[in-house]
Amino acid sequence: MVQERALGDRAGLRIPQILRAIRRMVYGSNDERATALAQLQDSEDGDPFRILIGTILSHRTRDENTAKAVENLFSVYRTAADLANADPGTVRRLIRPSGFYNMKTKNIMRASKQIVEEFGGKVPDNMEDLLSIHSVGRKTANCVLVYAFNRPAIPVDTHVHRISNRLGLVHTKQPEETEQELVKLVPKRYWLDVNDLFVRFGQTTCKPIGPKCSRCTLTGNCEYYRTTVRAKRS
Fold it and tell me: What's the rounded Cα separation, in Å, for the pair 147 and 233?
């Protein structure tokens, strides 16, 4: 237990340095995927409903395609009431770039109807109520809390899960476990930065397949690089 706590303390001290290094890499990148992600978040402009629907649409698709779908959808339907009463065929056409548009149309319309009927048309600002909405899991709920309400939380998607494990910050099997460990490990003042920076980093550098270790400045502190990449070269 003492050893685990000491490891956590050391990892906690690394967090500011890691975030600074990632920030320099991703904001210095001209990769189109980093640009698309930034545009998506900026276009939502802190609107809770847009962020909720945009996050649902982002499931299993690229951010640039999500951005197109969100722009198309909200050019026609602006509120939960609008979308709850929308024509499904029109919604499918508008969100087609996001992929899985038949399923996603059902999901976002059902979520919109629930927001109207149970929450007076306003997206709730707490985890319990958010999780009661159709198609909303912890990652989506945390994204809404962070990007819509500026509430400290750590949304953990596949990028955050992968990078946290590669760096050796955590050793977990599931994103839910990663969230639990990061909440204990990362000082709360950095929670709002973790998802944004780790996702951009995962899109541009620390990719699922073929990570660009040669241009990463974190290799000296990366467990994956030390045990996998460098080990293969030895």
Answer: 41
Number of domains in the chain: 2
36 domain residue, yes or no: no
DSSP letter string, 158-185: HHHHHHHHHHTS---SSHHHHHHHHHHH
Does 134 lie in the same domain as 58?
Answer: yes
**Integer Cα distance of 28 and 25 in angstroms:** 5
Question: How far lies 75's CA from each of 6, 39, 56, 79, in Å?
Answer: 52, 16, 17, 11
Residue 39 lies in a domain: no
CATH code for position 67: 1.10.340.30
Cβ-contact 18, 221 below 8 angstroms: yes
Domain termination site, one of 123, 147, 171: 147
CA of residue 145 relative to chain centroid, distance: 12
The pTM of the full predicted model, rounded to 2 decimals, is 0.83
Question: Is 189 inside a domain boundary?
Answer: yes
- State the virtual CA torsion across 92, 90, 65, 40 in degrees, nearest 10: -130
User: For residue 17, is it left (φ>0), alpha (ψ between -120 and 50) or beta?
Assistant: alpha
Q: What is the pLDDT of residues 155-210, one digit of tens each?
A: 999 999 999 999 999 999 999 999 999 999 999 999 989 998 999 999 899 999 99
Question: For residue 125, which of 142, 145, 108, 139 has the smallest C-alpha distance?
Answer: 145
